[in-house]
Design a protein that fits this description.
The complex is a heterodimer of chains A (419) and B (166).
Chain A (H helix, E strand, L loop, with lengths): L16 H6 L4 H9 L2 H11 L11 H6 L8 E7 L8 H8 L1 H15 L1 E8 L4 H16 L15 E6 L9 H8 L23 E5 H5 L1 H13 L9 E8 L5 E6 L4 H8 L9 E5 L8 E2 L5 H5 L7 H4 L8 E6 L4 H15 L5 H18 L5 H14 L6 H16 L1 H7 L3
Helix pairs in contact in A: 2-6, 2-10, 3-10, 14-15, 14-17, 15-16, 15-17, 16-17
Chain B lengths: L2 H4 L1 H10 L7 H12 L4 H11 L3 H10 L11 E6 L2 H4 L3 H12 L12 E6 L11 E5 L2 E5 L4 H18 L1
Parallel strand pairs in B: 1-2
Antiparallel strand pairs in B: 1-3, 3-4
Classes of the chains: A alpha/beta (419), B alpha+beta (166).
């Protein structure tokens, strides 16, 4: 199939401005600014059914419509903090199809009346940020950014901002704190960023992949976009496939493609002699899907969209599908994920800060074989007590793998504990 | 010498980029780390003074973000991702093997002071494990699909370049 987002896989060197221009680049931004009212764009994006691709899946057009038109200026901030273990899609978009992404940012800015947009990149994307700065400079020269664009009254400037290594800055209010020069700790909500966001002004925060869809939606309209995907989850999605598969990588597919297509079709299946045991479809934050003889066919035929992944006991999230084979016990898996969350907890909410500290002690002890059955019960109890008690989702997410590992793979823990 | 004296144009450009001064703190911290490879007490004082912040506020930002360092380490920080997706593809074995070859433990620096080997959290390169980033001053570069042999070659090349500079 031809790609909507990964157009670099169809058109060589589309990361060069001239090549992007030759292939229709910036025509949609120009069309938006010169012939569409912002409200028309918001309505079209609402009708397209585009949902946030960063993990939460919130309808993009609806998010935009929350900005009050009585408070100005408005800001657009692109979330390019991509840090969920198992997710590596935004980086490929920005490196290989940067202008489509930036055109998407520009369209979003026009749609909500923002004259300034920020792209917040994780600090590790130092090279990507340098490259985007170059792309932005080229766009300014070519007249796609700056004052009075295309002879209208509309002006726009884009800037990049580098984080410095903190998973929590992918949480939208922590991200805003970070741009404002503070520690990246989530804010209390309400007020939501749509009303009180960056520098206290109404702000839209969208993921890289979400924004990269916009030029296509402007060109082909909501109906054109809806020819892909399902009724409730329209459009295409990039699936980051990692772990024990022969061909890990990013794959752009219509929402609703099955696990079988991704893992055994495009991903080439598991290495010789290994058996699929578990899938984490939303990175380290996932509830773990158990795959065994009883559930194999049902899981494999499950469409990967926002609704159906829930039917096999997990969430689609950012669609970072981690494949785990039968050589890896679950006590090892959750020891890994908890070390991550313990390190990345920002420390603001006690249940998350202390909960992860104690969960790490327990997963470590269990994994090393020094634990008793009681420790497993205690671990599950700590996870349960954290749930729903934190300002942001990190606290909840850290418990998902722990709880589901213990519930769905009891034999792994029975093997590990002393009688 | 203060940052404003040392890098006048860059400091000015950073201030021009944001509507409030405080937003400059992260880019200024990177600048402070450029030559020293870590952020000295003096730099923190300097930045606090530039932004009307207390030194404690600046230090809390240094402490919060993992790419800022307040202690001297090797000239290069070799930061190997050992998170779940990389570990499923042998990142732990890679790191142990690499440390064995270099004669250091995780977190230690080679005797010549060139490379500090660290284990870090997900770097968004899960399909290209084993991988690491090389942090050097205010720059970060990725090295993906690595083997221990190729990593040792890279370290040799860094060593050579370092000797030539000296």
């Amino acid at each position: 199939m031809t790609h909507l987002l990964f157009r670099h896989r169809d058109i060589p060197e589309i990361n060069k401005l001239q090549v992007y221009q030759k292939n229709g680049g910036f025509a949609n931004f120009k069309k938006a600014v010169t012939s569409l009212q912002p409200k028309q764009i918001v309505d079209e994006v609402k009708a397209s059914g585009l949902r946030g691709r960063g993990g939460a899946g919130f309808p993009t057009g609806v998010k935009w419509s929350f900005l009050p038109d009585t408070i100005w200026p408005h800001y657009v901030v692109c979330n390019a903090d991509e840090s969920e273990p198992g997710t590596f899609k935004d980086r490929e978009i920005m490196e290989s199809n940067p202008f489509q992404f930036l055109e998407g940012v520009a369209i979003a800015c026009y749609a909500v009346g923002a004259n300034e947009g920020y792209v917040y990149l994780r600090g590790e994307f130092f090279e990507v940020a340098k490259f985007l700065d170059q792309c932005i400079a080229e766009m300014e020269k070519a007249g796609y950014l700056g004052d009075r664009l295309f002879g209208t009254e509309y002006s726009l400037r884009l800037k990049t901002h580098l984080g410095a290594g903190a998973y929590i800055c992918g949480e939208e209010t922590a991200l805003l704190e970070s741009i404002e020069g503070k520690r990246g700790q989530p804010r209390l909500r309400p007020p939501f960023p749509a009303v009180v966001g960056l520098y206290g002004k109404p702000t839209v925060i969208n993921n890289v992949e979400t924004l990269t869809n916009l030029p296509y939606i402007i060109e082909h309209g909501a109906a054109g976009y809806r020819q892909f995907g399902t009724e409730k989850s329209p459009g295409v999605k990039i699936f980051s496939l990692s772990g024990n598969v022969n061909k890990p990588g990013n794959y752009e597919l219509p929402l609703g493609a099955t696990f079988r297509e991704l893992i055994f079709g495009l991903g080439g299946g598991l290495p010789e002699g290994r058996k699929l045991r578990a899938i984490m479809p939303a990175g380290a934050s996932s509830s773990i899907i158990r795959v065994d003889n009883a559930s194999f066919e049902r899981v494999m035929d499950t469409p990967m969209d926002y609704e159906n992944v829930q039917n096999v006991g997990s969430l689609l999230g950012s669609a970072s599908v981690i494949v785990i084979d039968d050589s890896h016990p679950m006590d090892w898996v959750i020891n890994k994920t908890i070390h991550f969350f313990k390190h990345e907890s920002c420390g603001k909410c006690t249940p998350c800060r202390d909960g992860n500290y104690w969960m790490q002690h327990l997963t470590e002890r269990i994994h090393e074989g020094h634990a008793t059955e009681k420790d497993v019960v205690l671990l599950k109890s700590v996870a349960g007590q954290m749930l729903g008690k934190c300002l942001c989702a990190l606290g909840d997410f850290s418990t998902m793998a722990v709880t589901t590992a213990i519930e769905r793979f009891p034999e792994d823990f029975e093997k590990k504990v002393k009688a | 010498m203060s940052l404003a004296e040392k890098y006048p144009e860059e400091v000015q450009a950073i201030f021009a980029k944001y509507p409030i001064k405080r937003s400059a703190v992260m880019p200024l911290l990177y600048l402070a780390q450029r030559e020293e490879t870590y952020i000295t007490k003096e730099s923190m004082q300097d930045i606090a003074h530039l932004l009307d912040l207390t030194v404690t506020e600046v230090a809390s930002i240094v402490g919060f973000y993992s790419l800022y360092h307040d202690e001297k380490a090797g000239k290069y920080r070799m930061q190997v991702c050992t998170d779940l997706p990389c570990a499923l593809r042998g990142a732990d074995a890679f790191l142990n093997n690499l440390c064995g070859n270099l004669g250091v433990k995780v977190g230690e620096t080679t005797p010549d002071g060139l490379v500090t080997v660290e284990a870090v959290m997900c770097l968004a390169a899960c399909d290209k494990a084993p991988m690491f980033q090389l942090q050097h001053g205010d720059e970060v570069h990725y090295h993906e699909n690595m083997t221990v042999d190729r990593t040792l070659e890279l370290i040799e090349a860094l060593k050579k370049a370092d000797v030539e500079v000296k």
